Amino acid sequence: MEIKLLFLPLLLLLHPCISAVDSNDITNGGKRTYIVRVDRDAKPSVFPTHAHWYETTVAAVSVSTDGAATTASRTPGGLLIHTYSSVFHGFSARLSPAAAAALSSFPGVVAVLPEQVRRPLTTRSPSFLGLLSSDRSGLLAETDFGSDLVVGVIDTGIWPERRSFSDSGLGPVPSKWKGVCVHGAGFPATACNRKLVGARYFSSGYEATSGRMNESAELRSPLAAYKVCWVAGCFDSDILAAFDAAVADGVDVISLSVGGAVVPYYLDAIAVGAFAAAEAGIFVSASAGNGGPGGLTVTNVAPWVTTVGAGSMDRDFPADVKLGDGRIVPGVSVSGGPGLAPDRLYPLIYAAATVGGAGDGYSSSLCLEDSLNPDAVRGKIVVCDRGVNTRAAKGEVVRKAGGVGMILANGVFDGEGLVADCHVLPATAVGAAAGDKIRKYIAAASPHSPATATILFHGTRLGVRPAPVVASFSARGPNPQSPEILKPDLIAPGLNILAAWPDGVGPAGIPSDRRRTEFNILSGTSMACPHVSGLAALLKAAHPGWSPAAIKSALMTTAYTKDNRNMTMLDESTGNSSDVFDFGSGHVDPQRAMDPGLLYDISLVDYVNFLCNLNYTQQNIRAITRRPADCSRARKAGHAGNLNYPSFAAVFVDDGSGKSMSTHFIRTVTNIGSGGAVYRASVRVPEGSTVMVEPKELVFRRPGQKLSFMLRVKAAAAAAAEKLPPGSLSVRSGALTWRDGGHIVSSPIVITMQAPL
Questions:
Q1: d(CA 224, CA 151)
Q2: Where are the extended beta strands (E) located within 99-232?
Q3: pLDDT value, residue 142
């Protein structure tokens, strides 16, 4: 048997770059969607149901503020878009700002949140992760393939007919499963089976804002376990409805490959839904985002969410450029059809020199629609700059203009990060340095020595070194919401992943591509996130008593930071060593996570104390936790960094006095070994600081015993130590490691100091 999946965790979907849209941008009539949290017990007895109470309240507040009963926007289900009862109690509705403000003061209303619109973040990985060996042993077999666990996926869609979702050889659906298989266009109820055990879709929030769905362009059906993403995006009200259903259905793990702007946790629908899931014992993993390689781009940063960045595997798809002067320039591509003649060189031209139609030098360089001159392009390989339109769309522009091939060149900001795409014509992608080399070669050409090239496709290459590397697109820290919590938490395979692909879309993902394929090669942190979701399910199967925080701790403290050369993992965008803001605790190591030795567990009370130490108000905290909080003790006891997290992030602001600054962290670890154990601490001290651990030795006398320690950090003033420019940041990292002779339990230490303004 194996994990009962609402969606296969290792073979997933296309996930384009992350972004968020404020639903004010797509409102009509001055209204927008609001999510309203209420006190369940505040319902007046005169109302027979909560839904009746909600709808009456919405109608009344709209009349009192907007002046007419008709001003409350009606959805296909009435005045309400969704009602919620599992992750919290409340509803979503279309309201004017005045009505929303008035509603926030009604008795029993805990919070009124404006909706965000989010975007999806769009083989070999089982063996690369050590899940399955050649003799069929490994973590998958050792955990009985996660028997009787359910992974719920909140995402864009699947194609259930694919072999990835076959239930051949699987046991019965878990008896605890309470979910349903909702039928829809192209999705009969019989599409569910013993692997894809249930499916739902949520579109009311989308349609309330964007109007009725165009069913000729998308399917009103559950092509995912909990489908929330549509043409116009993924709407908070629908995402919360999916969380609500998943918790009620009885999932064990939720995998979330969508994200948006980082806002305070009490305004973040994903953070709110994930907190309720964690309270129900459900592990939630979410994509870190595809906004890298810039800093402060990480999303889904709540500490009760496992935030997953993306790395490479030891496999790539080389497609090199051979220039007319004999030089070979490395590139990558997935060849989707006939290639170029390997023994022939083709004329080579830079797109900026082929202005045509509606183009100019800039639009032509990017190979935008109708920007190329067919007379200049015909029969040539065209160099296009990356940016603005999609990578595959550039190839289509070149093909329509008569080009025989394309070289897609990164710009300076893109760096050296490459994604293997399946284009509509022979094409390859090259890094920024290689792009410069090719452009200079073209610029130096003459009528007597014209620029020529071909593309050499080499198929699949295994055993690539170095691996893993941090993917260029993978979003980076520091955590923009609470820098005391290091994010991302870790990375997993997310670059060039084999994934099931739907019948209705060609592998290039553009309308003109009429080819059809069962699988495709995809990249994104949304490829990485489901890997961790699947690993969490395996750990839950092996250790049913572990909490979501304990599973996260096991994954983080056993992660590795060295590649297959035994050197610090590289940052794909620069070729230099990566750091903790790139990979968090490191790359997941499933085998070691099975037996981590020690666990940093976190209770719901700990999370409440964390929120108190963020100086959230009682109302803010209640909007997340559904209960009042006593912050008096929490704020006396420490700071937000004292959450029992498996990493340490110290944040200092230099006051210009030249004095050193210090802080401390208190942590409690649980011995989950088979007997007593003695763990001794060692510290890799961040440069320019002093770190002390008290005590340096933890003596456990029995399994399950908890012991606490303190980590003290003292750092020199940034301006004095490094002569930093005003307001700039100094970042130094190290690690704390506990060893008992058999286990190695590691946690990153990062010190961030801002120089005086």
A1: 12
A2: 109-114, 116-120, 150-155, 200-201, 226-227, 229-230
A3: 53
pLDDT of residue 16: 27
C-alpha distances in angstroms, 454 versus 352, 376, 429, 535, 745? 19, 18, 13, 42, 50
Q: Is 206 exposed, middle or buried (0-12, 13-18, 19+ CB in 10 A)?
A: buried
Compute the distance between CA of residue 500 and CA of residue 159 in angstroms, rounded to an integer.
Answer: 8
Of 526, 553, 746, 747, the active-site residue reads 526
CA dist 712 and 635 (Å) reads: 19
Q: Is 263 left (phi over 0), alpha (psi -120 to 50) or beta?
A: beta
Q: How far apart are CA 755 and CA 69, in angstroms?
A: 56
> From CA 348, how far away is CA 412, in angstroms rounded?
22
- Annotation says 45 is catalytic: no
Rounded distance between C-alpha atoms, residue 300 and residue 60, angstroms: 36
647 is catalytic: no
DSSP 356-370: -TT--HHHHHTT-TT
CB 167 within 8 A of CB 195: yes
Neighbour count for residue 629 (Cβ, 10 Å): 19
Q: Is 363 a catalytic residue?
A: no
Identify the CA nearest to 398 among candidates 362, 373, 429, 422.
Answer: 373
Tokens of 412: 């300076």
Amino acid letter at 663? T
Structure-block tokens of residue 101 = 């403000």
DSSP SS3 for 132: coil
Angle, CA of 748, 749 and 750, to the nearest 5°: 115
C-alpha span between 648 and 475 (Å, rounded): 20
Q: What angle do CA 214, 215, 221 make, to 5 degrees?
A: 125
- Residues forming beta bridges with residue 711, ordered by sequence position: 665, 693
Strands (E), 459-537: 461-462, 490-493, 497-500, 519-522
Longest dimension (CA), the chain: 91
Q: Give me the residues paired with residue 456 across strands.
A: 320
- Smallest Cα–Cα separation from 568: which of 582, 579, 558? 579
Q: How far apart are the first and last CA of the chain?
A: 60
Q: From residue 299, give the alpha-carbon distance in Å to each of 144, 285, 363.
A: 33, 12, 31
Mean pLDDT, consecutive 10-residue stretches, the chain (757 aa), reads 34 28 47 92 91 91 65 56 91 93 91 87 53 51 56 68 72 80 79 80 76 62 72 88 91 89 93 96 95 93 97 93 95 80 91 76 90 93 92 93 95 86 93 95 93 93 94 94 96 88 78 81 88 91 94 98 96 94 96 96 95 94 90 78 96 83 96 95 95 98 97 79 71 96 97 82
Identify which of 748, 755, 412 has the alpha carbon closest to the alpha carbon of residue 573: 412
Helix (H, G, I), strand (E, B) or coil at 485: coil
Taking a C-beta distance cutoff of 8 angstroms, is the pair 612, 629 a contact? yes
pTM for this predicted structure: 0.86
Distances in Å between the Cα of 300 and the Cα atoms of 18, 100, 137, 272, 284 are: 11, 26, 34, 11, 11
Task: Give the active site residue among 148, 155, 244, 579.
Answer: 155
- Token pair 């055990």 is at which residue? 197
Out of 127, 144, 167, 183, pick the active-site residue: 183
Tell me if 624 sits within 8 A of 725, measured CB to CB.
no
